[in-house]
Amino acid sequence: MPLELIRPSDWNLPLFVHVLGAIVLVGSMFALVLLALGSRRGSNAAMFARLAFRSTLLVVLPAFIVMRAGAAWIESREYPSGAGEPGWLGVGFAVADPGVLVVLILIVLGWRSVKAGGGGWAATAVTVISGLYLVALGVAMFAMSAKPT
Amino acid sequence: MTTYGWLLFLHITGAFCFLGGAVTAAVINLAAQTRERPSEVAALMRTTQVVVIVVGVGSIMTLVFGLWLVHDVGYGYGDGWIVAALILWAVAAALGGAGGKRERETRFLAERLAAEGDAPSAELHSRMRDPATLAMSYGAGVALLVVLVLMIWKPGAG
Predict the structure, then answer these.
(1) Measured between alpha carbons, how far is A73 from B133 in angstroms, rounded to an integer?
(2) Where are the domains of chain B?
(3) Do the Cβ atoms of B140 and B22 come closer than 8 Å?
(4) A24 vs B15: CA distance, rounded Å
(5) CA A23 and chain centroid, separation
(6) Residue-wise pLDDT tens digits, A85-105
(7) Which chain B residue has its CA at the smallest distance from A44's CA?
């Protein structure tokens, strides 16, 4: 049995909170990409822009907070002194920490897109940034799950 | 990287597609429930077509790589938490599939109404909030959440 499968039982709850937050973050970011794509053009662009903005505020932001809080919680259990942290953990934080800025930028751009009634540069920017961050989350997931040395 | 590392990555990727896709579908369906014009409902529900593919691929990946992991790690296929997870996986797939089929019929109704004048419809309004459809979709979500709990706590695993 691989050694990484053996973990103290009091790590389970923080790990669950982190993973659940990450799953909802990935799912809601994917929804945001789809809604933002719809907000770029067409007769329903304004509706898609409003729903993309609301989704960012009501789902993406809370999910990000839960994911990041869960990450800090499980890190405090696994590496209480901060010493000996593996490289894959650094990859996770390299994606998660700038994420707060990314989410805030998405909120501002989403609001701008709503004000513009959809379409325009703001809708395109939300689409591109949310798509790129979804890819970055995939990279973090690879590092977190495969734990490459 | 070890075989275990690759298998775990592919299993977790599947889980993120399966559960994350369910979250995506829920967000878009909840958004659709706030709309009254059939063309808007139809446009939103059309965006979930790609999500259905992601969820389907994810569900297969979780099962295939999950079973492979059981073999690779040396767990027993008859362990209680694995049997429970397999049953709940099947329940989630069945409920999600049935709920998805009903939602597809609702999309067809929305598209037809959109083509016939795009006036708000009481039938579409009630279909969007049909308790049986919602119970199936959210029931699938709850089953998947319990699977996630089982995967992390692994009750009874040696």
Answers:
(1) 37
(2) 3-153
(3) yes
(4) 12
(5) 9
(6) 788 888 899 999 999 999 999
(7) B40
CB contact under 8 A, B24 and A34: yes
Residue ranges per structural domain of chain A:
9-146
* Coil, helix or strand at residue B30: helix
Residues B25, B50 contacting (CB under 8 angstroms): no
Distance CA A92, CA A78 (A): 15
Is there a contact between B22 and A27 if contact means CB atoms under 8 Å apart?
A: yes
The answer to whether B17 and B61 are in contact (CB under 8 A) is yes
- Convert the pLDDT of each residue in A28-87 to its tens digit: 999 999 999 999 988 899 999 999 999 999 999 999 999 999 999 999 988 887 777 788
Q: What is the ipTM of this complex?
A: 0.93
Task: Name the token pair of B51.
Answer: 């999500």
Helices (H), chain B: 3-33, 38-46, 48-73, 80-115, 122-128, 131-153
CA distance A81 to chain B (A): 24
Please give the model's pTM, rounded to 2 decimal places: 0.94
A-B Cβ pairs (cutoff 8 Å, strict): 100
**Nearest-angstrom CA–CA distance, B12 and B15:** 5
Q: Which helix (H) or strand (E) holds A38?
A: helix A12-38
